[in-house]
Amino acid sequence: MALAGAGAEVLAVETDRRVAAALEEVVPGLSVRVVVADALAADWPELLGSGPWRMASNLPYHAAVPIVLELLARAPAVDPFVVMVQREVGERLAAAPGGPAFGAVSLKVAYYADVRVLRRIRPTVFWPEPKIESVLLRLDRRPAPVEVAPNRLFGLIEEGFRERRKTMTTALVRRGLNRARAREVLSSAGIDPRARAETLGLDAFARLTEALDG
Prior knowledge:
The structure is a single chain. This protein has 214 residues and is an alpha/beta fold. It folds into 3 domains: 1-37, no CATH class; 49-141, Rossmann fold (3-Layer(aba) Sandwich); 150-213, Orthogonal Bundle (Helicase, Ruva Protein, domain 3). The chain contains 10 helices and 6 strands; from the N terminus they run H-E-H-E-H-E-H-E-H-H-E-E-H-H-H-H. It has helices spanning 2-5, 17-26, 44-48, 64-74, 87-94, 104-112, 150-162, 168-174, 179-188, 202-213, and strands at residues 10-14, 32-36, 53-58, 78-86, 113-121, 134-141. Helix 2 (17-26) links the parallel strand 1 and strand 2 (32-36). The longest helix has 13 residues, at 150-162. It is elongated and about 70 Å long. The relative contact order is 0.10.
């Protein structure tokens, strides 16, 4: 309502038909289009067209990560994103290598966008009051910082974090290399064979992807 009242054209995506019907009742006269759809299954290029669009959303906690990744990958018309998510989820999305929240999701998001935490949201601002804290995030698209296709890169990232306390040598052995060859490939990519995935950034994973393909 506030966005539409400020003159924005709003596309409201809601999976619950009852909530969508209630929303339809309060937006007559405003530039609001209500679409009943699952954000994870929606045809975003069809819904959005060429854009541009900005995303402002309080994302459901259980689906926040896949929704963000889906839109980053399939909805280039959306930029920037301002989303509220569970604090732990937000910290994972914005984490840098070596941090306690850093993981595969951190790297996947970093492939597409710069992420920053704008502020923490305390449970007391909600009713009923949840037992968790939230954060407000902003994601701004930018060109990919590495020249490796995401489908190749992300598969290696996922393998590296499958057993995050194991070394990347072990991750490559799981991919079918013998241990000596795994160490050789890692060294050729400038990575210590004893390194763990949680210490590596996109550049390192991109070099390793190229070394494996070479």
